[in-house]
Design a protein that fits this description.
Blueprint lengths: L1 E5 L3 H11 L7 E5 L2 H11 L3 E4 L2 E2 L2 E2 L3 H7 L5 E6 L4 H9 L4 E4 L4 H12 L4 E2 L1 H11 L3 H4 L2 H11 L4 H8 L3 H15 L4 H10 L4
Parallel strand pairs: 1-2, 1-3, 3-6, 6-7, 7-8
Antiparallel strand pairs: 4-5
């Protein structure tokens, strides 16, 4: 099995190489530190599996998946990340990754995940599944941060971003970011629906 390790931290890559080199079924281990280099290596050496960090500096590692698949690559992708955010996990899942492992995993767990994926199975870190399940059991309101609830409350009063920023002593840009997160978490399409949600759920 040929593996490509993609991580922007050299020490992490070296640590993973040390772990992977103990597995006899892995014949070749290559590495890349950014998306451009990774895409080039995937298309030139055609690895069986890519062990991919979610954060590659300012890039998102997931963005390379559709790019290489559009070019005909059928390699498997296993995300290895520090992120236990359910939105990162759901996006990775929607892109068809074959595995999602947290960097807190033990070496034997990483090797187990790779083995299962190489045999055609999916492997999701039990820790991330527990977190996602716990978050799914919460109502949308409970997923909002305290500041996002403040912004939603003001949205429910019909205030503009500028007015909300002035009321909460934050910039209009910060308000826009909060509104975007609120729409995603409440699964509504615009601020009018968010305002209706705020009023019908007694947020205001």
């Amino acid at each position: 099995m040929k593996i490509l390790v993609v991580d922007d931290h050299p020490l992490v890559r070296e640590g993973l190489l040390a772990i992977l080199s103990t597995e006899s079924s892995i014949s070749t281990i290559e590495q890349a530190g950014n998306s451009r280099e990774a895409i080039k290596r995937i298309l030139s050496s055609n690895p069986n599996l890519v062990l991919l960090d979610l954060r590659l500096g300012k890039e998102c590692g997931l963005d390379m998946i559709p790019k290489v698949r559009d070019k005909g690559s059928n390699c498997k992708f296993v995300v290895l990340t520090c992120s236990s955010d359910q939105y990162d996990f759901k996006r990775a899942e929607s892109l068809g990754v074959d595995g999602y492992i947290l960097k807190t995993a033990y070496p034997e767990e990483i090797l187990l995940g790779i083995k299962l994926v190489s045999r055609g199975r999916k492997y999701y870190d039990p820790s991330i599944l527990e977190i996602v399940l716990r978050q799914q059991n919460k109502g949308p309101i409970e997923e909002l941060t305290a500041r996002e609830r403040d912004v939603l409350r003001e949205l429910g009063k019909g205030k503009s971003n500028k007015e909300i920023g002035k009321q909460l002593f934050i910039t209009e840009y910060t308000v826009k970011k909060h509104v975007s997160q609120i729409l995603a978490k409440l699964d509504v399409s615009d601020r009018t629906q968010a305002a209706l949600y705020a009023n019908t759920h007694q947020v205001v």
